[in-house]
């Protein structure tokens, strides 16, 4: 207020403006601040990977869920279904971290056990389809691999190296899934139905500079179709100023 000579007519307006101030997102200096946006995109997103445009439609189990039946807010961290933030480093395998986060969540919901699973097993071993390790991939294809592979081993048994490696076959499966479904496209309500029931893999335009320097608050922006980064939706809610938000788990470390 002092710096920009902001004056409010009464305590109520000051309180309201303070809530707006807190809700606005902010950017900061972080480990990506000495990278150009092109350099940042080259290491943190799906690089030049272009998936096959042909998608086989799946069912959607939450189709008939009433929006009135959904909780107003959900945070899967509070239900113990989200492992701590991981860091993909200089390897463009966000797809593996996104798929693993969703898998860890549904395994916890189904079995009661939160198990940190191995992204590196996907990077090294899921190489016979479209997925290309550090060069990029797709969450759907990761799910297909997990099913066909009989699951994934633990993070500790097959630790992350942030580089393409040789597949260590014979790893004991710690958790698996039976199937996967795509949330209907361009449908916020459908995504809300899914996220109310489990953490969900989502794709975003992660090369945007607001992602590169994001530091906190509710990030707002336009809808985009240049989807080059996989993360996980782990909740949703409404900010104090009425802004609806998604809660996202990224894989770029805690800073």
TrEMBL record:
The keyword Hydrolase applies. One of its GO terms (biological process) is proteolysis involved in protein catabolic process. Pfam families: Peptidase_C1 (PF00112). Keywords: Disulfide bond, Hydrolase, Protease, Signal, Thiol protease. Residues 70-255 form the Peptidase C1A papain C-terminal domain. It comes from the Eukaryota. GO terms for molecular function: cysteine-type endopeptidase activity. InterPro entries: Papain-like_cys_pep_sf, Pept_cys_AS, Pept_his_AS, Peptidase_C1A, Peptidase_C1A_C, Peptidase_C1A_papain-like, Prot_inhib_I29. Residues 1-40 form the Cathepsin propeptide inhibitor domain. One of its GO terms (cellular component) is lysosome. PANTHER family: CYSTEINE PROTEASE FAMILY C1-RELATED. Belongs to the peptidase C1 family. This is Peptidase C1A papain C-terminal domain-containing protein. It comes from Setaria italica (Foxtail millet).
């Amino acid at each position: 207020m002092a710096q920009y000579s902001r004056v409010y007519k009464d305590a109520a307006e000051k309180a309201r403006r303070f809530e707006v101030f807190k809700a606005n997102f902010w950017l900061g200096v972080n480990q990506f601040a000495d990278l150009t946006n092109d350099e940042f995109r080259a290491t943190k997103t799906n690089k030049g990977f272009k998936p096959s445009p042909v998608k086989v439609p799946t069912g959607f189990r939450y189709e008939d869920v009433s929006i009135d039946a959904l909780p107003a807010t959900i945070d899967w961290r509070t239900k113990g279904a989200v492992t701590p933030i991981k860091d993909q480093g200089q390897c463009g395998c966000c797809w593996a971290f996104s798929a693993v986060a969703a898998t860890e969540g549904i395994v916890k919901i189904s079995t009661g056990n939160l198990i940190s699973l191995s992204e590196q097993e996907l990077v090294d071993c899921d190489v016979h389809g479209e997925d290309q390790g550090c060069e990029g991939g797709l969450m759907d294809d990761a799910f297909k691999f997990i099913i066909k592979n009989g699951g994934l081993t633990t993070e500790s048994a097959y630790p992350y190296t942030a580089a393409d490696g040789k597949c260590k076959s014979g790893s004991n499966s710690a958790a698996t899934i039976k199937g996967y479904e795509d949330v209907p496209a361009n449908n916020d309500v459908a995504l809300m139905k899914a996220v109310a029931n489990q953490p969900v893999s989502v794709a975003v335009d992660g090369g945007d500079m607001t992602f590169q320097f994001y530091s906190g608050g509710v990030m707002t922006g336009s809808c985009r179709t240049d989807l080059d980064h996989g993360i996980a939706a782990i909740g949703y809610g409404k900010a104090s100023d009425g802004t609806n938000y998604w809660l996202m788990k990224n894989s770029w470390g805690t800073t």
